[in-house]
TrEMBL record:
InterPro entries: Ig-like_dom, Ig-like_dom_sf, Ig-like_fold, Ig_sub, Ig_V-set, MPZL2_Ig-like_dom, Myelin_P0-rel. It comes from Seriola lalandi dorsalis. The lineage of its organism: Eukaryota, Metazoa, Chordata, Craniata, Vertebrata. This is Myelin protein zero like 2. The keyword Transmembrane helix applies. The keyword 4Fe-4S does not apply. Its main location: membrane. Keywords: Disulfide bond, Glycoprotein, Immunoglobulin domain, Membrane, Signal, Transmembrane, Transmembrane helix.
Length: 255
């Protein structure tokens, strides 16, 4: 048993020394299958994880293309300190950098895809000392029209956006109506005490003056058009004056 254990340990040590069992700190992640309509732009997403600190001067990103039909693998894009789009081949002036190395993003955009772009795209990232590791693959399928699933997702996205806008408008209008109702209630509460102070049996000073003037007789002299205010007559005094004048007349008659 000891001999077998020693032999097994020796084999593992040899494999590790040869690099077969070397543990890689670089991991590359891609979106898998991607579908794009002919003539549109498509984003090939690729992210990575490295155990070493990112060195912007030495980190490299390579994109390559393997067509569906038998043929050679073609370089699509290269990044080292700055983007290097292809200067020849079928991807010339069709590839743009869309990643961020500090954000661990190695994505690219292919503009105006064609049916000849059908195939597998390979994303490889190296960040020394993490130079060995997995690579990411994306299988692109260029179609004439969008599939039902993509149309459904687009319709759901548009419908969700419209629904969110409608709900927001309803909330805003409801808030405004509530504010107006509160303002009306506050104004009504402010006017209520004023109405409670009014006594129906009490007479306002202006009305009292009006009533006083209405009881006072006004005489108009037709000769010069002047208005003269007559004094208020007391009914009792007028009655007393009547008989006295008659008495005076009677005395004169007796004479």
């Amino acid at each position: 048993m000891c001999v077998k254990g020693l032999y097994f340990f020796t084999v593992l040590s040899g494999l590790a020394a040869s690099g077969v069992l070397q543990v890689s700190g670089m991991r590359v992640y891609t979106s898998g299958d991607v579908e794009a309509v002919n003539g549109t732009d498509v984003r090939l997403k690729c992210t990575f994880h490295t155990s070493a600190p990112i060195n912007a001067n030495s980190l490299t990103i390579s994109w390559s293309f393997r067509p569906l039909v038998p043929g050679r693998e073609e370089s699509v894009f290269h990044y080292q300190q700055k983007p290097y789009p292809p200067v020849e081949g079928i991807f010339r002036k069709r590839v743009a950098w869309a990643g961020d190395i500090m954000g661990r993003d190695a994505s690219i955009i292919i503009r105006q895809v064609k049916f000849t772009y059908n195939g597998t795209y390979i994303c490889q990232v190296k960040n020394p000392p993490d130079v060995h590791g997995t690579v990411g693959e994306i299988r692109l399928r260029v179609v004439t029209t969008a599939s039902f699933s993509e149309l459904l997702l687009l319709a759901l996205a548009i419908g969700g956006g419209i629904t969110a806008v409608v709900i927001l408008l309803v909330i805003i209008l409801s808030c405004r109506r509530c504010k107006k109702r509160r303002q009306r209630q506050l104004e009504g509460n402010e006017e209520a005490p004023c109405k409670e102070r009014k006594d129906p049996t009490a007479c306002h000073p202006s009305r009292a003056i009006h009533l006083y003037l209405s009881e006072t007789s006004i005489e108009i002299d037709s000769s010069d058009g002047m208005i003269s205010e007559a004094s208020t007559k007391d009914p009792s005094s007028s009655e007393e004056e009547g008989p006295s004048s008659d008495d005076d007349d009677g005395g004169d008659d007796s004479d």
